[in-house]
Design a protein that fits this description.
The protein is an alpha+beta fold. Helices cover 25% and strands 33% of the residues.
């Protein structure tokens, strides 16, 4: 097993209306939901549309075994908007926790679709895997890399 993809952190679902979807999840007992921290924290971004990235709304629900994410892209072009337009609502990516974002990206050997880094080098890398894996895979480092 590739250690980069061994610790599932979250499942991200793209939706048309984040409020309606959150209300449904709450009605079946999946809660509480909170807004994702500001996307402006990402100082370095390599994404198709900065405007599209910054305009996305995210909500997260931390369950005992995994985090669920809801993502509502706006009209700006983004991979999430393209997915929603082409395939409708559903899973956009699976996110895996790694200790070091840069090291994970280098070790993956998979083309990068998008990435973002915060000031302390934490952040995410989306891999171009949808065609072959059926879904986008992502690695993310929440903690600062150890020196």
């Amino acid at each position: 097993m590739n250690p980069l993809f061994s610790k599932l952190h979250h499942v991200c679902i793209v939706v048309h209306d984040i409020d309606i979807t959150q209300t449904y999840y709450e009605s079946i007992g999946i809660a509480p939901w909170v807004a994702y921290p500001p996307l402006a924290d990402y100082k370095e971004l390599d994404v198709p549309s900065r405007e599209g990235f910054m305009a996305m709304q995210y909500r997260i629900c931390n369950m005992p075994n995994v985090q669920l994410q809801l993502c509502q892209p706006d009209h700006n072009p983004s991979p999430q908007r393209l997915h929603l337009n082409a395939k409708g609502e559903g899973v956009f990516h699976l996110g895996f926790e790694v200790p070091d974002a840069e090291a994970a990206e280098a070790a993956a050997g998979i083309p990068i679709k998008m990435k973002g880094r915060r000031e302390k080098r934490t952040g995410f890398s989306y891999y171009d895997t949808a065609e072959r894996a059926g879904v986008v895979l992502l690695t993310r480092a929440t903690d600062e890399p150890s020196s």
